[in-house]
Amino acid sequence: MPVIFYARVSTAEQNIDHQTAQARAAGFVIDEIIADHGISGISTCLADRPQGKRLFDKLRTGDTLVVRWVDRLGRNYSDVTDTIRHFIRQGVVIRTVINGMTFDGSTTDPMQQAVRDSLISFMAAMAQAQSEVTKEAQKAGIMAAKRDSRKYPGKKPSYTRRDFETIQEMLMAGSGASFIARETGLTRQTILRIKTDPVAAEAALSRWRL
């Protein structure tokens, strides 16, 4: 059965190479890549994305859908939970690159199903929380950058916007600073600074127009 990797990037300028490389480095053997470019996960649900809607027609029983993190599948708690449960009912196995989670319909035990569904709900709630934190950090960071626009922009950040988004996702997924540093190639101190003050981290990106 095929393994399909779905990726989403928020701007047309970004590419999916980093997400794909992460998946392969985690041991996934990918048969096909489906990706949406320039699509906001905050405002657009999976079924309304040009490539996302293909998943609903393409995936069959026994197929595996791989995503970097569950936030790739929806814009909020309801979207994520509804989408995962829809694919599970179809017999699709869903796996995440971050933390290596697996969701499927293999169990018929009510208690195990309840644990699985609770975990799905928890992860979906974390995905929405991460989205809201990132959105607020972006707003505050842009405002701070505009306020300080006449000042020297400071040292150029050692991380990119893609790094920033990845770090935010991995922090919300429960990954530690040392693990994230190894995965991204950044220093542990950089990860901790972003974790401690995401607004300042976003402001630095905005000042440098990154």
- Please state the CA-atom Rg, rounded to the nearest Å: 18 Å
The CATH homologous superfamily of the largest domain corresponds to Resolvase, N-terminal catalytic domain
Query: Any idea what the CATH architecture of the largest domain is?
Result: 3-Layer(aba) Sandwich
* Domains, number: 2
Unreliable spans = none
Main sheet: strand order? 2-1-3-4-5
By CATH, the topology of the largest domain is: Rossmann fold
What would your notes on this structure say?
- The structure is a single chain.
- With 210 residues, this protein is an alpha/beta fold.
- It folds into 2 domains: 3-112, 3-Layer(aba) Sandwich (Rossmann fold), CATH 3.40.50; 125-207, no CATH class.
- Helices cover 50% and strands 11% of the residues.
- The chain has 8 helices and 5 strands.
- It has helices spanning 17-25, 52-58, 77-89, 110-147, 161-172, 177-184, 188-196, 198-207, and strands at 3-9, 32-37, 64-67, 93-96, 102-103.
- A 5-stranded mixed β-sheet has the order 2-1-3-4-5, with helices on both faces.
- The radius of gyration is 18 Å and the shape is elongated.
- The model has no long low-confidence stretch (mean pLDDT 83).
Short description:
The chain is α/β, with parallel strands linked by helices and 210 residues long. It is built from eight helices and five strands.
